[in-house]
Amino acid sequence: MAHPDKDEPRTEVPQVPSAEEVENREFLIVGIGASAGGLDALSELFRQLERDATAFIVVQHLAPDHESILTQLLSRITKLPVHTAANDMTIEPNHIYVIPPNANLAVLHGVIRLLPALDTHGPRLPVDYLFRSLAEDQGRFAVGIVLSGTGTDGTLGLKAIKAAGGYTFAQDPETAKYDGMPRSAITSGAADFSLAPKDIAVELSRISKRGFRPVDRTTELPRVQDQIAKLFVLIRAEFGNDLSQYKASTIDRRIERRMILHKLTRLEDYVRFVQQNRDELAALYKDILITVTSFFRDPAAFEALKSEVFPTLFEHKEPGRPIRAWVPGCATGEEAYSIAIALLEYCEAKNVEDRFQIFGTDIDDDAIETARRGVYPANIALDVSMERLTRFFTKREDSFVIARRIRDMLVFSHQNVLKDAPFSRMDFVSCRNLLIYLQPPAQKRVLHILHYSLNPTGYLLLGTSESIGDSAELFSPIDRKNKIYLRRNVPTQVAPEFRFGTPRLGEPMRDTPMPRPTQNLQGMADRKVLELYGPPGVVVGPNMEVLQFRGRTGPFLEPAPGAASFNLLKIARYELHVDLKKAIQDASATQARVSPEVTYHENGKARVVTLDVVPLQDPESKSHCFLVLFVQAPEVKETAGADGAKETGAPSPQAAQRITALERELASTKEYLQTTIEEKESALEELQSANEELQSSNEELQSTNEELETSKEEMQSTNEELTTVNEELQNRMVELSQSNDDLHNVLAGVDNAMVIVGMDLRIRRFTTAAERLFHLVPGDIGRNIGFLDQFLGTAATLEPKVSAVIQNLSVFEQEVLAANRRWYVFRITPYKTLDHAIRGALLTFIDIDVRKRAEEMFRDVGSYADKFLGAINHPLVIVDRKLRVVWANAPFYTTFQVSPDETLGTLLTGLGAKQFADPGLRDRLEGVFSGSAIFRDYEIRVQQPDGEGRMMSFGGSLVPASPETPVVLVSVEPLGESSQPVRGSAK
């Protein structure tokens, strides 16, 4: 297919490649995200690029209505063809594709898909949108690069690419014009490299030339397995977790990725490098754990929970008991918080109030710490609606903080679900994207553990790529599309054995047989009748697995060679397969009894059997089962004709006597035998009774032993739960202690008197300044705020004012003259929590006595000067200690042509054209304030408004207006031109 010119978008619609074709196209697709200052970085990057069979997609933050010329600019820089991305454009190596304005760009099967950029009233994040799409579509062939820009766009996308096995780059913040985007990526740990743009081009070329084949276990298998086993040993010794239960493909891709990053080609060299570098061992461990998740992943599943699961949970919940949920493998907590939000939304929609207890556990300590903090970047707006962000999050700069009411519903803890004791009595378990990384034995063990953890009516939610596999007997599907399952009460299932150490997955689980019910004579007779006259058969579940055998089914069941199976169609005689499958299908479709007759041959003889299929329903799980009976027709026995016996003559007397004797002996023997039989039957009955008593005692002992074992496991689970809660409380205590220390230092360092009161108008806390001002003691905590009325004097009572502020959410402010004869600004504001809930009020007392006295002094000085100095015709001015003008007479305004508005409150030295900025004058004025000295006849040349200089004589003395705030009266007398200045001149 011909490619379009550099500046023209592609117009033809290409054939969408198949998934197999995409898998065979092994070249890197590089997503590049940039914002402010990104053009310089893009130019530097593309100047260094070589033709290495790599495709590039450039996404830049653009105004929706602004036509981009980035395609033309890049065409002048690089020799690679540059296109403006268009819908259905197939991505080819050695080509550059630039996003158009007002669009989001995604990749599906190597083809570009453009979607309109919807206005969500939040930040647009096109870089994250592209990166996540690349991660899902290209996996280990995806590369993400974040260049210069502001904000955090690209951080979550880089995490997704890294989790998929791709490679991630961020521009070195020192080389970026705006370092917001690259610094966010580096801080989050999502970037493998932090390089200058030209170095990123070099590293890309090296990775592209290296190839992308994962570790090959087929060649030199013992050597490869030995090296990987060494890595497992190093990880277990350092972090205490055995990762050998992970799938080989997952492990191999992560190891190959780390080898490429460190330019190593031999597995032995990488193992040696890991032994010498603990940071690399930690990085490999982190890569294998894959702690990437998101809020409300698969939204349809959460809607299904609200409609199918939550109503049943609340219906079967015991009064006073909270809804309990567990999220194993919770990563950084988004899944657990999403479930909490969904539960809260359901309760608000149904107008019910309830308590929830949600446990989030993970093997990664850093991920757990992130979940506990509950602080997430602004990029979560891609997954969380604006309505939810407003209700359940608090905006803080470039991040969102989970609301306290949501945070209090969750407990996070470190746990290895394969090794540590699980939680118990759970109503709901969400285990998503965990099983897909484990080998089948580990998957089966995890499912058994989750089955044990759930209540009899508990629900299990799995990821879209997961299933219950070979553990279908443990769970019944409720919603196959959204992978929601109901726990089944399997009769033979008991609590799993917990090993507090490295689990040995090769060992089969040991199931202790359940005790048989107490036997009685009627039950024995019923069973004997069924054995003698009831047809043999089996009970099968909805997946055709045999749940129970009834009678002698040997003539009809013939297990095939190979792996053991309980599937009815795999163990039935070959001749019965077709009719048996059809009969079950007909019974399932009609939900009625079906009884077809089947003829087959055995040992050369024709046999006729009726397949009687009866639909049943499991009373516990409500799933559909089937009773399949094999009714065999009786064989027709041929009776040979017999000739009549020859008639005999009458017996002789001897013979008759002999016959009579024999008859008597026979009767005696029969009587003896009857007596013996009766005695034996009586003894047998006594023996059977004793045997039943022994069996009953044995069963009671078995039941007691199993109850003890179950109690032991429940104690272990409870202990694990208590340990988890204790760890969470300890973390909260540390945070609370730090917050208390911070609050104590803040309160001690605040100069203003502040008092915090609760909703009951009682004191909860106060500052050190308030303690000194009101003479408070620790015993005053809990005291009613009304006792401060005596301090405020006639300012009315406090209680009504505080109550009004709390009820109206208003602010009260008033200047008051307190009992200590000082002026204060008294302010009352509502006390709000981070969740915007009102929990009391904050009372603040700001000392304004100096300002108030100064204002009064200024009024007094003005009145004094107007009264006693009004008859003087030459300029006069009064200044305070800071040399600010507090009064001037009319001749002053006239002489220097200034107005009262620009004079009063202005520094004398900065007045007008700075005519009075003379150092000697300042020194003399300050001398008057410090020593009460009077100066006269200080002559300087002052520039007049008309531009001419004129000699003037200055004098100054203290004014007895107020002893607390002294002021100086300055006299200005114009002199003749013949006079000479004492010191210098001023302009």
Overview of the molecule:
By secondary structure, the protein is an alpha/beta fold. The chain folds into seven domains: 19-210, 3-Layer(aba) Sandwich (Rossmann fold), CATH 3.40.50.180; 221-284, no CATH class; 299-487, Vaccinia Virus protein VP39 (Rossmann fold), CATH 3.40.50.150; 530-632, Beta-Lactamase (2-Layer Sandwich); 674-739; 750-847, Beta-Lactamase (2-Layer Sandwich), CATH 3.30.450; 851-974, PAS domain (Beta-Lactamase). It is 39% helix and 21% strand. It contains 28 helices and 34 strands. The strands form seven sheets. Strands 3-4-2-1-7-8-9 form a seven-stranded parallel β-sheet, with helices on both faces. Helix 12 packs across helix 13 (334-350). The longest helix has 97 residues, at 653-749. The model is unreliable at 1-24, 499-519, 638-647 and 978-987 (pLDDT under 50).
What are the defining features of this structure?
disordered C terminus; single chain; 28 helices; disordered N terminus; 39% helix; 34 strands; Rossmann fold; alpha/beta; elongated
